[in-house]
From TrEMBL:
It comes from Candidatus Ryanbacteria bacterium RIFCSPLOWO2_01_FULL_48_26. This is Large ribosomal subunit protein bL21. Belongs to the bacterial ribosomal protein bL21 family. One of its GO terms (cellular component) is ribonucleoprotein complex. The gene is rplU. Part of the 50S ribosomal subunit. Contacts protein L20. GO terms for biological process: translation.
Amino acid sequence: MTQFSVIETGGKQYKVSAGNKIKIEKIEANEGDNFVFDKVLLRADGESVIVGTPYISGATVEGKVLAQARSKKVIIFKYHSKTRQRKKRGHRQHFTEVEVMKA
């Protein structure tokens, strides 16, 4: 069993281990910067598991920001058949790609 942690960022939870690349909600950091996640919910190594209530005090996960980008466009199309109403909208979500250095 490998060492991993569960972190919370952007209202979502991610299971990460060292060397993973994850796409998370946009954070305020520049490309190449180091970022520290302090909301660690769970930490597991080979034989022991530590669960926070809700977070583990003093535990951090370090990562490096690889990119600030936008995902593919999502089309929102609303249609009402009898009244001939149509609405077409598009949306591109911002995200940050992070490589986990130490979990």
